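ERR on first pass: missing label on line 2. Operator R.T. fixed the label and resubmitted. Corrected input:
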Amino acid sequence: LLHKIAAGGATAVAAGTVAAALPQVAVAEEQATAPESAIGLLYDATKCIGCKTCVVACAEANNLAPDTRLDGLHQAPLDLNNFTKNIIRLYRTADGSEFSYVKSQCMHCVDPACVAGCSFEALRKEPGTGIVSWEGIKCSGCRYCQIACPYSVPRFEWEAFNPKVIKCELCKPRLAQGKEPACTTVCPTNAVVFGKRSALLAEAKRRIADHPGKYFENRVYGEHDAGGTQVLYLSHVPFEKIGLPNLGTESVPSRFLKWQHRVYKFLAIPAVLYVGMVGVMRGNFKHHQDEAAREQKETGLRPQL
Amino acid sequence: MTEQRWQRAVPVYAVPVQTRAFMLFAFMAIVGVILSVYREFVGLGPSSGMTDVYSWGLWKTWNVMVVTGLGSGGFAVGIAAWVFHRKRLHIVTRTAVLLSFLAYFCGLVLLAIDVGRPWNLFWMLLPWKWNTRSPLLEVMTCMTAYAVIPLFLENVPPVLERYYYLRPELRKKLAPIDNLMTRSFVFIIGLAYILPMMHQSSLGALMLLGGQRVHPLWQTPLMPLLYVTAAAFLGYAGVTLTLLLTCLFYKRPVDTGVLAEMNRIAAGLIIGWTALRFIDLLARGRVGLMFTPDVYGAMFWFETVVLIAGAVLLFSSAKSRNLRAIFNANLLVAIGGTVYRFAPPMLAFHPRAGAFYFPSAIEILIAFGFMSVAVVGFLLAIKKLAILPAPNSSWYAMASYAKLVRPEVQLTGYITAKD
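pass 2 clean. output:
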């Protein structure tokens, strides 16, 4: 905490030089919390058998062509890509003493970095469900979402003329039909289940309570990580090993853009600076014009602006 | 290069426009433009080295982040001259704003080529659809607004001046425009300083959202402030190098007094900037990373040492007035600052272990092609317009020359002073 305060303090000094003239604006930026109606997934790595049925079902449900680029025969994507919104991968130490499957898809963060960065809200948090969805008409294809997402989830159609951003949207159309997402429907071991975030969180905590010591750090990844995610993870191996970085409990936008928001609040600071500079320059400009006129009298040369 | 006082912007005259260097740059520009059309047809993947891991390539990180930094002279020199009353710098503002305009213009065009769905950029025109949290929105709208409004208007006076002299019959018609320009000038240049402060700092804020993927030596809440300050000293370096090179090529006199003044400002900025960086690293408790023997530690020291050496040389050459030393000092600053501006989005951006990006040949040709567009524009402008500074005697010399080749032209002061 101390170093955070210190870092904040250093920025404050910088911002303060410009903000000094302003009365203290009370900026109470509270961290967003998931609404009660938020939905999500719970993935338990200890239950996953790595059958990849969910990978195939996901592609089918989302009308994505099977990714057979590896050998031209099998649907075997190597990573999330323009044909793959959901993937199962294997983490294994060199000696085989520790291994785990891991499912990757959009985490549907409570306060997503991609949404914070998206210029025209092409990526947005849907009210109620909290699904992070993508709307093509608003997307300029700038790929800032790919820079911002700490989980490297959004993918881009690099070969397309009108490229789309490809990411899990929790099977929105299926939900509208009253069905569950494809991945949870087909999972043979219920390693991934669908439900309300609050219910999934309770379930995850129940599993931890039932089997103390089984799960890494006896905690649910996504309860507080990066400000909370709507996809929750349980794992017997360290989260970092299966692509879930330790991001702290503050969301990426509130952690990194806090000061940016304060400086731009109501555009007050830029406006004050502008007015101040114009005020100073009016005097200087008059002076400059007078000098130029004097010089013109001496040399006969027309002044240049 | 002889030494004299710069008093007036004078076109480069009696030199053909189509020199061999000009043709080379024009050729590169045309190649770049043709390849950018190719990119529109085949998509970004086949025409660049960008991937889902490194999804921002050379065009955004080099042509936008670095080149607009080097082209920030219009802001850096202008604000010193007009706001901080450094009167001697007025003489180089025309050069500075022309450089800025070309750098921004080419950067923005390339930004539109870089985005995958450029037709959706029309949302920029609808402020109620903006996501005001987004640093990228700030950069896009603010840069465009800057280039299209104040920066464009700042470059209008030399054009008006050309018509004033070459088309005397238009003088009456141009007078009200001139008048309006003079009356609104402070409001325009006010915008020309506040907007770059906003978007040059937001360029740093862009990478804030990169979070932990940007190496902690660079990832700091101070990044916006460091970026805008770097833009200022890079802007001075860009203007000084351009002035020295043009004076060398066209054998024009140099006013080392003006250059020395810019040197001192830039050196002060660099020292303050470096101090801020070290204080920030101390405050964040990341000093240890400086001494980690990896590529990032080495890069940090490269930036720091090159910039500090540059600052020291800036100071000493401002005193000695040695042109070679001034040139070298500014070159060091340009290199150090470039590496800094290039680091957060590219060199110190590590989204995944083992991932690697190298631009494709097409990508590089387009990047240099659009820089060549700027060079071509610059070479044209300095020959057609009064941009580069010179002593009044150069103006008189030009007037005598013009009297020989274009007797119908009346250049004030020397030949006749009819107006």
